[in-house]
Amino acid sequence: MDKLAATSVFESLSSSVRLDVFRLLVKKGLDGMVAGEIATTLGVPPTNLSFHLKALTQARLLTVEQEGRYQRYRANIALMLDLIAYLTEECCSGNPQQCVDLRAASNCSASVLQPISTNSTKS
After folding, report:
1. Strand residue runs (E) in the chain
2. Total domain count for the chain?
3. Full-prediction pTM beyond 0.85?
């Protein structure tokens, strides 16, 4: 991921409705949800939701698949993980052992975080 892509993702998530939609679809995983279910679950009018779904899809945060008359939306989990990796790739300036205590204090699931190698390769 590059800076431009990361900026696009963050701009797309800057709306509370879009953030709620994305988090809901992350929770639903591969099953995703059709637009009407999303609107009902979040209490967002369908016309308003349509605008937000389009923005999230354009930012590649969501994928959409036609199912008859309905459209099923899914969170792009791979993009989310790429963003996390982009944000943390230079954590602690190449000294990952410094991050151990910070990671332990985080609410982020250990299964999402990249393993920390505590072996230093510096001379």
Report:
1. 33-34, 62-67, 70-75
2. 2
3. no
